[in-house]
Design a protein that fits this description.
alpha+beta, 5'-Nucleotdase_CS, six-stranded mixed sheet, globular, signal, eight-stranded mixed sheet
Length: about 600
């Protein structure tokens, strides 16, 4: 007898096969995966097939944004969810819109909803979300009882502190899995499937108590029989790995003997865990064999019937996104924005700064210099198409979502020059040390890299990074040594001193997540999202000078990777395309000058 578990994770609203930013067909989507799962059930009527989602479903793509803006109507994403899943778990991004919106969404969900390590106290979500579920399936060999549990990182209390602080408590993931899985087996579960919204790392800094990526530790929990994991947008088993490393069997898709899958991001893959089951001499079910693998979404084709069922929802989203909000005179893109600040990144900083200055003019904030900053979110982390490209001309609402994809709320803080220097040191740490690595940039990865969403550019300053020195911080803002890369830091031509004060319009994620900002004085918390503020700003048809505040020394020629499509824009910069890598990315060369601020050798 075969039990098949199909799993998704980190779908982030990638439901319909349409690229809403470029208005073209998309070769991977949740509907690709749904069509495959529906066909599989028809072809294998004697198998037990279950479908689960491991969180980060309700935030990320334009369907999610539509739902949030039309939350009094039946949610489009939930309709699809109800047509696919037996069980869903929570991810960290489920909390981005707040508990009350999550309650509204989950009241429409027909699948079982599970999470074992978040205590919702008196909130009504506690009545909807179960600690675990055991689902009974009748088989020729008897009643098979399949259990599911889910955990999320304790860091949700930092990432969404403004929604969660004082309202929920979160228990350590690994400890929760140990006692909950044991309880499930004692309650009669024959098989326990863990849905871990956490990455897999063997780095002691990642898997220590309260670490973010603890799934490797959970493979050692004896009462867990299979694992779906996620959060870091990576893949497991990864077909590019050929060797066995310690307890990891990449070919079989197992760690410490347990089958497990991590199915990427945005419905790029479908995870599949298969169990061959039998009955022992005592009549109890036993696992005779197990294996796990991934199915690429791009290798599948959504059926006409599936597309037709959700066509009306797709049209609603298209109509919503077509609303004009402004105009730009030239193409804005983020292909080079980890080195050469982009107008697409700067626009968010300018919008945030304008919002803060309005509050100052009304007397709601003290009159201090305002520093606008932003990080580039879409810079290739999720593949060669994960970049912002806005053609010159009319801007629609979809452009604003492309400029700022997250639903973070505006938080304005006051900092001094000492904190500002640490902030810039963190940004400077995204660069590899000069002459010690072929690539100028560290990997755009949340695990063992430096994700672009943590690389902040301050557009109202002039500063210099000396990358011949070691990096001071890790990508997660953990101080790793005492080196200093920031050799110059000026505001309006004047050197910044440690005691200087500044107002910085930020966002709830940055303030709650960053260690050296947690004690910053909060001057203003808005219920409005940064994206709403950007939309309002773009409606004014703003004109701002393109600023390039960062200088990198030592000067010279450096190599970096970005999308091959960026070749179309190299004439705008001191950049040269050198080599295709065959995966949608290419090597580029940039000539960095020392004699002026701005990382381009050409204005």
């Amino acid at each position: 007898m075969k039990l098949t578990i199909f799993a998704t994770s980190d779908v982030h609203g990638a439901i319909y096969p349409h690229d809403y930013f470029n208005d073209i067909y998309k070769s991977k989507s949740l509907l690709h995966l749904k069509s495959f799962m529906d066909a599989h059930r028809l072809k294998h009527p004697d198998d037990i097939v279950m479908t689960v989602d491991n969180g980060d479903f309700l935030q990320g793509d334009v369907w999610n944004d539509y739902d949030y803006r039309h939350s009094d109507d039946p949610l489009l994403a939930i309709e699809v969810m109800n047509d696919i899943y037996d069980v869903i778990g929570l991810g960290n991004h489920e909390f981005n819109f707040g508990l009350d919106y999550l309650l509204k969404a989950y009241r429409q969900v027909e699948a079982e909803i599970v999470n074992a390590n978040v205590d919702f106290h008196q909130h009504a979500l506690g009545d909807i979300i179960k600690r675990y579920v055991i689902i009974d399936k009748q088989t020729p060999e008897g009643l098979l009882r399949i259990g599911f549990l889910n955990v999320v990182p304790t860091q949700i209390m930092k990432w969404d502190a403004f929604h969660l602080e004082g309202r929920v408590e979160v228990e350590d993931m690994n400890r929760t899995v140990k006692h909950t899985a044991r309880e499930m087996k004692e309650a009669g579960a024959d098989i326990v499937i863990l849905m871990s919204h956490s990455g897999m790392s063997k780095d002691p800094d990642h898997i220590r108590l309260y670490g973010e990526n603890q799934t490797f530790l959970m493979t050692m929990v004896k009462d867990v029989d299979g694992i779906i994991f996620g959060h870091t947008h990576e893949f497991f088993p990864d077909r590019n790995f050929e060797a066995r490393i310690d307890a990891i069997d990449f070919k079989r898709g197992a760690v410490n003997g347990k089958p497990m899958v991590q199915p990427g991001v945005s419905a790029s893959h479908l995870g599949c865990i298969e169990f061959d089951l039998g009955v022992d001499d005592d009549g109890a079910f036993e696992i005779k064999n197990s294996r796990a693998h991934l199915i690429e979404s791009e290798s599948l084709t959504p059926t006409r019937e599936t597309l037709s069922k959700y066509e009306a929802s797709h049209r609603k989203v298209l109509d919503y996104l077509s609303e004009p909000i402004g105009h730009i005179d030239e193409t804005w893109h983020t292909y080079f924005s980890r080195i050469i600040p982009s107008k697409a990144v700067q626009a968010v900083a300018e919008a945030s700064k304008a919002y803060a200055e309005t509050l100052i003019s009304r007397g709601d904030l003290e009159r201090l210099p305002v520093l606008g900053f932003n990080a580039v979110t879409k810079a290739g982390r999720d593949g060669p198409h994960d970049f912002t490209v806005l053609a010159g001309g009319e801007l629609t609402l979809s452009a604003a979502i492309d400029l700022y994809k997250h639903t973070n709320s505006m938080v304005i803080i006051k900092i001094d020059g000492g904190i500002l220097k640490e902030w810039l040191e963190w940004s400077a740490s995204q660069f590899n040390q000069a002459n010690e690595n072929e690539d100028l940039l560290k990997a755009n990865s949340s695990k063992n890299g430096f994700p672009s969403y943590n690389f902040d550019t301050f557009f109202d300053l002039e500063y210099t990074f000396d990358i011949s020195r070691s990096a001071r911080y890790s990508g997660t803002a953990k101080k790793i040594n005492d080196s200093e890369r920031v050799t110059e830091m000026k505001y309006q031509g004047r050197d910044i001193k440690p005691g200087d004060s500044f107002i910085v319009p930020a966002n709830n994620y940055r303030v709650a997540y960053t260690p050296f900002l947690r004690d910053a004085e909060i001057l203003h918390e808005s219920q409005r999202t940064v994206r709403d503020i950007v939309i309002e700003y773009m409606r004014t048809n703003p004109h701002f000078d393109h600023k390039r505040p960062m200088t990198i020394i030592p000067g010279g020629t450096y190599m970096f990777k970005t999308a091959s499509h960026a070749k179309a824009y190299v004439d705008e910069q001191a950049v040269r395309h050198t080599e295709e890598l065959g995966n949608g990315f290419s090597w580029y060369e940039i000539d960095l000058k020392e004699d002026k601020h701005g990382t381009s050798g050409k204005e």
